[in-house]
Design a protein that fits this description.
The complex is a heterotrimer of chains A (293), B (535) and C (319). By secondary structure, chain A is an all-alpha fold. Chain A contains 13 helices and no strands. In chain A, helix 2 crosses helix 4, helix 5 runs antiparallel to helix 8 and helix 6 packs antiparallel against helix 7. The chains are: A mainly alpha (293), B alpha+beta (535), C mainly alpha (319).
Chain lengths: 293, 535, 319
């Protein structure tokens, strides 16, 4: 029976890919994302300069051949900083989503599986985290524990667990009463086995979509925190803290090379993630596609 | 005869014209830009924030005021006498000074103001400025009902007594005088919550009108001010966003505001705006934790100082708005001296020499070592200033060239202060804003709370104590000169730069000090009373 | 209905708010730094004064005592006194700045619905046309662009280069307060804050309307021969609007969060700057006061959203 389940999943995997491919914006998004990940990985080779090497004599310079995106107020190459900033954004995005997924998976499964008091308790906890002013909380916690890339990842991850938890719990509730889970329990399968072999795979698609959009949201939040000076601290480059340096109006007005690259980078990457994630959601759930095919 | 008449007429015309030009115009609103909101504690003995002080400075008057040369001048007190032995000071007050509600200000109000500071239930922080008055300690502990050191002789005469002469005392009599008749019935412990603090009544040149948080404070001229009505009608402290200041100046929305170094070029070029650059009473520094053995060695501290290019820090990072500092008394202070002061000019070779002589050798990773100690340390950098951040980066780079590894730790100011207070730091950077009196005791005495470096030096303590007792300014200056040389030699702290400030003023504002001293073109807030606006 | 509301408040709301306040107070007091840091600038200070100040603020007590004291005050409606040197009541500080933040938030919600709903309707009506693709594209742009970047762009274009709108701030003292002036100050911040809402509402409206349009009962209405327009506007819209109301429950928290950043960029005199300043100064009562207030508002928002949903759809019954 399990073999049949997997075979069905494989063929539907192909179907999903085909549906995804038809959505041109989603594909474009995926391509951009791949480029972004590659540029982050190969940043040291793509950047001619050290992003942290200051050269006060070359500060505030507009784009030139030596510095294709110009230099910032400490003489550091902006192209290099943008590329390395991408690494930070990618890392923070992935790690924080990883944290939120881990916590969410555990708590969501516990809630869904055991139900009753456990469920109520966990859902109340989720409410506490979920419906409150995320950024203000994040700012409070970040300001208090100090800005650092690790704190940022932890804060963003820990504050976002209710999303995946709710998803997983919903999957549990849906499948808990189905025949085959009852049957599996009947033949003596342990709860963990049931969870991993049967329920999780079905939760895979909504979780994937949630994770994808979660990365986008994390990137935006990290940028926001860094913009306020509470995220990634200097001298490490992050797109958010690069934008923070451009806040004085004379830099804003006269040195656009300092803020346009990081801002555009955030925008393009998040846009790509949103297109791809939306396409992913449509590909998994054909009912949403109203073109009648 | 006719020619003689014409000359007289001409002279008359000229003098009339001249007088007409010089006569200040009355009226108008003066908009003073501020970047931080006042708190709303407009009480001279309870406030601690500078921005509340701006309002207090114009709503209240003190016995004295501080002039552009940092010297005390008569205000409510028309004169004063200091006794031979320096332990008594008697103030003679003007008669007829009225509070904004019409009640006359007398010595009783002065006594009330200072007694409140000494009161056992006083909730403010000014006690330590006056605890040397005779009987202050007993009063504070509740043992007595009065303070013998504050003696009201008659309505317009009041005498203060101290055990020992205390040179900084005189300038601290600038605190605004509170109206006793409005506050004496409020228990001192509850003064903090009094509605009076948000609606102050003083005897100063301006009356309080309105305070809108995060927006502005409006004050109007006191028609009955005893020295004459201010020329302007209205004073507005206008909140402006730091980043938006150049636009506000250009659009003629503020008349006077402090600008930052990176705004200077843009503002200086604006028509109709003048900029004034002047030295302030402040400095910033990098502090060594001398409780650690590696920093206890003076050679290391001196080497690090030689090895940091502070001139580049001032010239490029501060865009020239600074002065390399080598002792904790700014050039703006009358006690400043450059005699015998080593300037520790940037000299990485000399730095390397000093370290080698002291026995530091490069370890396997290039970082200097000696007897199990390494010259790798944390540098705490409070966040909030781009210039500080840039300075830290430059420092790190300069130190790397010497084989010293500096790990930058950026933290929020509050958290950094925590670590400094707990003495859990290797090095850190901050700044000090200094008071009018040059007495460094509060920061540098070994018993001081703020003895961050852990500097224990008997000679330094002795000089500081002597400087406090010496009332002759010339002798005092000598004492402080010696003390500066001592600190300059011992270098418990590396001094970075003295403060240099830039004020931007709209040209329609007349009567400012165009050669500003440390208190700026308005001499603190003193000249707001006498400036006028010409549109 | 009332039973539902009461149950929401007592069974769900109060425990959640309690838990939130406990967690927040814990985090805030555990952190390094203290409210008396600013006393560092005062010369000649002796430690007795610092200890006295700590006692005045109550921070020399253990965490649990502090929390219970705070809790005891807040159930009586007393938000406490600010820890800064003026020690004003927290309620006053919040009251002074709340109108500005509420106005900004309302303006962006109105923009979100005002522009988002018509745009979403258009997009659904002309599905798969160029207009639809354009609108969809811009909606994605709207939710992808970081608000502060968008805000900086708006500042750059409208305030610095074209000089038609103010570069942030609010009326100056003495400036005549006209409605036009007010709108000019509000314009850029509201647009910045509202962008995400506009985009989100437009997309949601489109999806919701499309889902409804293809339902069976509408086919029946068409078969009966009613004009297409009537079909859409009368039947579909009412049903499609329902999910939008629930959106309110999500929009409010994100708008309050976004407001902090937007107020910072445009120097808008609202709660945002107070919140950031309070955090920097470890002003515990103000931090707690602002966060709790937002929490309550958000909770109320979600209840209102659920209730409106019930009113609009007679099939839904809460009890």
């Amino acid at each position: 029976m399990e073999a049949a389940l997997y075979r069905e999943q494989l063929s539907s995997g192909k179907k999903i890919w085909r549906r995804f491919r038809r959505n041109r914006l989603a594909v474009a998004g995926l391509v951009v994302l791949i480029l972004f990940v590659l540029s982050a990985i190969f940043a040291p080779w793509l950047a001619k300069h050290d992003p942290n090497r200051n050269n006060l004599r070359e500060r505030n310079q507009p784009p030139s051949r030596e510095h294709p995106l110009g230099t910032d107020d400490m003489g550091r190459d902006i192209l290099a900083r943008t590329l390395y900033g991408g690494r930070i954004s990618l890392t923070v995005g992935l790690v924080s989503v990883g944290i939120s997924l881990s916590i969410g998976l555990i708590l969501g499964s516990l809630a869904g599986f055991f139900g009753g008091m456990v469920d109520t308790l966990i859902m109340r906890l989720a409410d506490i985290f979920y419906s409150f002013p995320f950024l203000i909380l994040a700012i409070t916690i970040a300001a208090i524990f100090g800005p650092s890339i690790y704190n940022t990842m932890i804060i963003l991850g820990v504050l976002s667990w209710p999303g995946p938890a709710r998803l997983l719990r919903a999957e549990f509730l849906k499948l808990k009463t189905t025949d085959f889970v009852t049957a599996a329990t009947g033949i003596g399968a342990s709860p963990a086995r049931i969870m991993f072999r049967h329920i999780l795979p079905n939760a895979f698609s909504p979780l994937l979509v949630s994770a994808t959009l979660g990365v986008a949201s994390s990137i935006l939040s990290e940028a926001g925190l860094s913009f306020l000076g509470l995220g990634v601290p200097p001298p490490a480059p992050s797109w958010g803290n690069m934008l923070n340096r451009a806040r004085p109006l004379h830099i804003l007005a006269n040195m656009p090379w300092m803020w346009v690259p990081p801002g555009l980078a955030i925008f393009v990457v998040v846009l790509a993630i949103n297109f791809a994630g939306d396409g992913l959601r449509d590909a998994f759930d054909p009912r949403q596609d109203l073109s009648g095919k | 005869m006719r020619r003689w008449l014409m000359v007289v007429l001409l002279l008359l015309c000229l003098s009339v014209a001249a007088a007409a030009q010089e006569a200040p115009k009355q009226g108008g609103t003066f908009r003073y830009g501020i970047t931080v909101n006042p708190r709303g504690m407009f009480n001279p003995i309870l406030y601690t924030e500078v921005y509340d002080g701006l309002v207090i400075d114009v709503v209240y008057d003190g016995l004295i005021y501080i002039d552009r040369n940092l010297q005390p001048q008569p205000r409510i007190a028309k004169s004063w006498e200091i006794s031979e032995d320096g332990t008594e000071i008697t103030f003679y007050l003007h008669e007829g000074i009225k509070f904004h509600d019409g009640v006359e200000l007398t010595a009783k109000d002065v006594a009330f103001t200072y007694m409140t500071i000494l009161h056992p239930e006083y909730t403010g922080v000014r006690y330590s400025n006056f605890n040397m008055l005779v009987g202050a300690k007993d009063y504070k502990e509740g043992k007595t009902d009065t303070v013998p050191g504050i003696e009201v002789i008659d309505d317009y005469t009041i005498k203060f007594k101290v055990e020992e002469p205390h040179a900084p005392l005189l300038v601290s009599f600038g605190y605004g005088i509170l109206p006793a008749h409005l506050l004496e019935d409020i228990p001192v412990g509850e003064l903090e919550q009094a509605p009076f603090n948000l609606n102050p009544i003083g005897s100063g040149p301006f009356k309080f009108v309105e305070f809108l948080t995060d927006q502005h404070v409006i004050l109007e001229a006191n028609e009955d001010y005893f020295l004459g009505r201010p020329n302007i009608d209205t004073l507005v402290y206008q909140k402006v966003a730091q980043d938006a200041i150049p636009i506000y100046l250009q659009q003629n929305r503020v008349d006077y505001v402090a600008i930052s170094a990176d705004q200077f070029a843009q503002v200086d070029a604006m028509e109709g705006i003048d900029t004034y650059v002047y030295e302030e009473l402040s400095y910033n520094y990098i502090c060594f934790n001398m409780r650690q053995e590696r920093f206890a060695d003076r050679a290391v501290r001196q080497a690090i100082t030689y090895g940091f290019d502070r001139q580049t820090y001032v010239d490029i990072i501060r865009e020239g708005f600074g002065i390399v500092a080598n002792a904790p008394m700014p050039t703006a202070s009358w006690a400043y001296t450059s005699e015998g002061i080593d300037t520790y000019d940037y000299n990485p070779e000399r730095a390397a020499e000093l370290l080698a002589e002291a026995g530091w050798q490069p370890g396997p990773d290039g970082v200097l070592e000696k007897d199990g100690m390494r010259l790798e340390f944390e540098f705490l950098v409070p966040e909030g200033s781009r210039q500080t951040e840039q300075m830290a980066l430059l420092f790190q780079q300069n130190m790397e060239d010497l084989g010293i590894k500096v790990n930058l730790v950026f933290m929020e100011f509050s958290a950094a202060v925590d670590r400094v207070d707990a003495r859990e730091f290797d090095t850190f950077t901050m700044g000090w804003s200094l008071g009018v009196d040059p007495d460094p005791y509060g920061i540098w005495h070994s018993t001081s709370l703020w003895n961050d470096p852990g500097f224990y030096n008997d000679e330094s303590d002795r000089l500081l104590e002597a400087g406090r007792r010496e009332t002759d300014p010339a002798k005092r200056k000598e004492i402080y000169g010696e003390w500066q040389r001592l600190i300059n030699r011992e270098l418990p702290t590396m001094f970075l730069s003295y403060g240099v400030t830039i004020s931007a003023v709209n040209q329609r504002v007349k009567g400012i000090d165009t050669d500003p001293g440390p208190l700026g073109p308005l001499v603190g807030r003193e000249l707001v009373r006498t400036i006028w606006l010409e549109d | 209905m009332w039973r539902y509301i009461l149950r929401r408040i007592f069974v769900q709301g109060i425990p959640v708010l309690l838990g939130f306040s406990f967690f927040l107070y814990l985090v805030v007091t555990l952190a390094p730094g203290s409210p008396v840091t600013h006393l560092r600038g005062v010369p000649n200070l002796d430690s007795a004064v610092i200890e006295q100040r700590k006692a005045q603020l109550g921070i020399d007590q253990p965490f649990l005592v502090q929390y219970l004291q705070w809790l005891g005050r807040i159930v009586r409606g007393d938000l406490g006194l600010s820890f800064d040197s003026a020690r004003r009541p927290v309620a006053d500080l919040i009251k002074e700045r709340m109108p500005a933040t509420i106005t900004l938030s309302l303006a962006s919600i109105i923009l979100g619905w005002g522009i988002g709903i018509p745009v979403g309707i258009l997009s659904a009506r002309y599905q798969y046309s160029i207009l639809d693709y354009l609108i969809t594209f811009f909606a994605f742009v709207g939710i992808s662009i970081p608000s502060f970047f968008f805000g900086l762009i708006l500042l750059y274009v409208f305030a610095l280069k074209l000089n038609v709108l103010p570069a942030g701030g609010f009326f100056l003292a003495g400036e005549v307060k006209t409605l036009a002036g007010y709108i000019s100050y509000l314009c850029l911040p509201a647009l910045t804050l509202g962008l995400g809402s506009i985009a989100g509402v437009a997309r949601y409206m489109r999806a919701s309307l499309l889902e409804v349009i293809n339902q069976d009962y509408l086919r029946t209405a068409r078969a009966k021969g009613l004009a297409e327009r009537i079909v859409i506007y009368k039947h579909a819209l009412r049903n499609a609007l329902l999910p939008i109301l629930t959106l309110l429950g999500f929009m409010i928290p994100s708008i309050f969060s976004g407001a902090v950043i937007v107020e910072s960029i445009f120097a808008w005199p609202g709660l945002g700057s107070l919140a950031i300043q309070a955090v920097n100064e470890r002003n515990y009562p103000v931090i707690m006061g602002i966060n709790m207030m937002f929490a309550v508002l958000i909770f109320l928002g979600s209840i209102i959203a659920d209730i409106s949903y019930a009113f609009a759809d007679p099939r839904i019954r809460y009890d």
